[in-house]
Amino acid sequence: MQVNKDNGQIVRIAVDAMGGDHAPQEIVKGAVKAARELEVEIILVGAENEVNAELKKYDTAGLPLRVVHASERIMDGEHPIMAVMRKPNSSVALATRLIKDGEADAMVSAGSTGACMVSAMQFLGTLPGIDRPMAGGPFLQLSPQ
To answer: What whole-number distance in Å separates Cα of residue 54 and Cα of residue 118?
Structure first.
């Protein structure tokens, strides 16, 4: 399966490598699989030393993967608004800013949903007529019957 933008370029996905349970191990594992199977560029955002140590466990030769260093991470239990404000160099904030800066097309995090929403509102804003963010659930691809 290949995922391309309308202009034929590969989709660039910023991944919060430090968010979620068992990060960055499980996040890196999934990112490598996505880069291999979906033909998307994965930008892992997190503690560079930790992320690179995990990447060394896989054959990533030729895969569109890169790492962006984030010196901070938002932990479970932190108040989302305060955490994003106090930790501007957190993995979730930097991953979101990659979209704003045009370096990524989308962002994914398994970390704090609240911090994701706060980052999105702070760095990306909302669409006209939309006042607040919405958390999405799984997307299903239905086969034609």
So the answer is: 28
